[in-house]
């Protein structure tokens, strides 16, 4: 499977075998053997290929058809902001405000831990409703 994926990635980027082999610091003959699945790259070369094309190792191995299952950092920051907003909304309630008077002094890690705990409790409650 790696051969077909590697060849498609190389062609989509407009590289010849010679071009790509040079960029990866491998011989063209090795690259050719990888592309026809006659030889597997060693782990260092395998990682170089994934890094060069910005795809996951699972994609190269054929375990997934999504070349970039790694989450986007911007999306992670957006999600983090949403989690913080949820927690702040929760803490606006008078009862919870009394319980968490020193919330403003908490570290970001403590706030994230609390949010994860609350989400887990919510998920359990919803799961139990279905029973």
Could you give the topology of this structure?
Elements lengths: L1 H11 L4 H8 L3 H8 L7 H11 L3 H5 L11 H19 L2 H6 L8 H22 L2
Return Rg in Å.
24 Å
- Under CATH, the topology of the largest domain is which? 434 Repressor (Amino-terminal Domain)
CATH superfamily of the largest domain: lambda repressor-like DNA-binding domains
- CATH class of the largest domain reads Mainly Alpha
Instruction: Based on Cα principal axes, name the global outline.
Output: elongated
Secondary-structure-based class equals: mainly alpha
The sequence of SSEs as H and E is HHHHHHHH
End-to-end C-alpha gap: 44 Å
Q: Supply the CATH architecture of the largest domain.
A: Orthogonal Bundle
> Could you give a short account of the major beta sheet?
none
Beta percentage is under 5%
> What is the helix content?
55-70%
Number of domains: 2
Give the uncertain stretches in residue-range form: none
Would you report the number of β strands? 0
By DSSP (H or I, 4+ residues per run), the number of helices equals 8
Average pLDDT over all residues: 81
């Amino acid at each position: 499977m790696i051969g077909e994926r590697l060849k498609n990635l190389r062609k989509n980027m407009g590289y010849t075998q010679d071009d790509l082999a040079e960029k990866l610091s491998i011989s063209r003959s090795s690259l050719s053997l990888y592309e026809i699945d006659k030889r597997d790259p060693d782990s260092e070369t395998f990682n170089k290929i994934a890094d060069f094309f910005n795809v996951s190792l699972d994609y190269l191995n054929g375990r997934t058809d999504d070349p970039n299952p790694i989450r986007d950092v911007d999306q992670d920051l957006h999600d983090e902001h949403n989690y913080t907003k949820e927690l702040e909304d929760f803490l606006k309630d008078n009862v919870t405000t009394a319980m968490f008077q020193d919330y403003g002094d908490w570290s970001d890690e403590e706030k994230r831990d609390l949010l994860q705990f609350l989400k887990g409790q919510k998920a359990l409650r919803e799961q139990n409703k279905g029973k």
